[in-house]
Specification:
Helix content: 40-55%
Bound molecules: protoporphyrin IX containing FE
Distance between the termini: 44 Å
Largest sheet: 5 strands, mixed
CATH superfamily: Cytochrome P450
Number of domains: 1
CATH class: Mainly Alpha
Shape: globular
Strand content: 5-15%
């Protein structure tokens, strides 16, 4: 990369970080959430942001909402849209001239950052694999994957619940959907953690280089995979997409690479965190665990409450595509509004006594953890099936599972979840907390 450009990006990042740090020192809740001090418990800061108004304008120019009704309305409002992170962050991932023709970033160039009608066309292409009937057919495979992961860990007295179970299951589920061999899964885990780590923004040159490397590797891997499957007779998702009309042109192949890359990363980086947060909750709450063991069908609403109280995606961003008034605030065209999903999910006007864990709430599925509107998570059904099967299976197989040390959280603000949860598997319950 041009050293002058590298220096300019480095200085811009440094300046932004200094502003955020300075504001955080004054107790500003937005800067606190953007900084690292709130990682242990960001939720009180979302409350403080909601207390400033249903929609508030922050000094750095962003609008925010932590209100459930407003957040949901914004996500469903066609006057709001999305745009690639690079266009509003002022920083990029080390793109070289010409990379725009060579590389495909699965988050920045996929449906996640596209508005209708382009978004609708591509989403329709993959939605057949996520319909209720397709998921019903796929569910036995999910159960088999969970059972095999449990076989591997249940023979051991101690293990890391995140690395050896919560991460393994969703990666294998998405690999099964793509019909990709287990040997590729270590790379997937690395790619996923690099890309989701940068959802907070890219802070260092080292991070930029890591993203560039990851995007290069993913583009090459997925382009080769599509080329190989195009000539075969496979009936898996990738083979069918490769043989579709898009597979015939290089632009079409780029669109497929972005779509499959997004499914790959979005498909496991989020579900891991629900399984981790859910297991933590169930290890600490004996009553809840007993209820799950007595009534295995409680797994589904338990997953919903985990998603509401510990959403793996804590916030998302929308851009006003035209002048719009939201909750009394006039937003100009181009204004950026942060929907604090994690704040909206604890809005007492939607969820009375919001911090109480209650899988029997009448509106238990009404959280915004899967977003809402046109970008509503395509994999929500699959994530629900996977997380419920994993949590139910885990405690049925190891009812005495307990923490063997403190859980640690990922150092990311947009994606929330544990990076490690040491556990012990004995006949009796052990809980060290932390
Ligand atoms: C618990 C697990 C999951 C959570 C919390 C989650 C969360 C989300 C959220 C919040 C969005 C929308 C972001 C926005 O509105 O800006 C989203 C979109 C998406 N998710 Fe998920 N997700 C999960 C699992 C999955 C799985 C398993 C897959 C696929 C196998 C998947 C695929 C997608 C795709 C393709 C989109 C883009 C949809 C669009 O833009 O139209 N997700 N997800």
């Amino acid at each position: 990369m041009n050293p002058l450009r590298e220096l300019k990006i480095g200085l811009t990042t440094l300046a932004m970080r200094s502003v955020v740090r300075g504001l955080a020192l004054t107790g500003d809740p937005v800067a606190t959430v953007l900084g690292r001090r709130a990682l242990a418990d960001p939720y009180p800061h979302y409350e403080r942001i909601r207390a400033r108004g249903e929609v508030s304008r922050h000094v750095i120019g962003l609008y925010l909402t932590a209100g459930h009704g407003t957040g949901k309305a914004v996500l469903r409002d066609p006057r709001f849209g999305v745009e690639p992170a690079v266009d509003h962050g002022g920083v990029d991932w080390n793109r070289e001239p010409g990379d725009e023709y060579r590389l495909v970033h699965p988050m920045e160039q996929s449906i996640l950052t596209m508005n209708p009608p382009g978004h609708t066309r591509l989403r329709h292409l993959v939605s057949p694999w996520f319909t209720p009937s397709a998921l019903r057919e796929f569910t036995p495979q999910v159960h088999r994957i969970v059972e095999e992961a449990l076989d591997a860990v249940s023979a051991r007295a101690r293990f890391d619940l995140v690395a050896e179970f919560a991460a393994r299951v969703p990666i294998q589920v998405i690999s099964a959907l793509f019909d990709i061999p287990a040997a590729d899964q270590v790379r997937f885990a690395r790619w996923g953690s690099v890309l989701t780590g940068t959802l907070d923004g890219i802070r260092t040159m080292a991070e930029r280089r890591a993203v560039h490397r990851t995007v290069s590797e993913m583009t090459e891997f997925l382009t080769d995979l599509l080329a190989r499957r195009r000539t075969g007779a496979g009936t898996d998702m990738i083979s069918k997409l490769a043989r579709s009309e898009l597979g015939e042109s290089s632009q079409g192949v780029r669109e497929l690479v972005a779509l499959i890359g997004l499914l790959l990363v979005a498909g496991f980086e989020t579900t891991i965190n629900v399984i981790g947060s859910g297991a933590l909750r169930l290890m600490r709450d004996t009553e809840l665990r007993t209820a799950l063991l007595d009534e295995p069908e409680l797994a589904a609403p338990i997953v919903e409450e985990i998603m509401r109280l510990e959403p793996p995606v804590q916030f998302t961003l929308r851009k006003a595509l035209e002048p719009v008034t939201v909750a009394g605030q006039d937003l100009a065209e181009g204004a950026m509004l942060v929907v604090l999903i994690a704040g909206a999910n604890r809005d007492p006007s939607a969820f009375p006594d919001p911090t109480r864990f209650d899988p029997l709430r009448a509106n238990v599925r009404d959280h915004l953890a899967f977003s809402s509107g046109v970008h509503y998570c395509l994999g929500a059904g699959l994530a629900r099936i996977t997380a419920a099967a994993a949590l139910r299976g885990l405690f049925q197989r190891m009812p005495g599972l307990g923490q063997a040390g403190p859980a640690r959280y990922k150092q990311t603000r947009n994606i929330r979840g544990c990076s490690t949860i040491p556990v012990q598997h004995t006949g009796t319950r052990i809980s060290l907390g932390g």
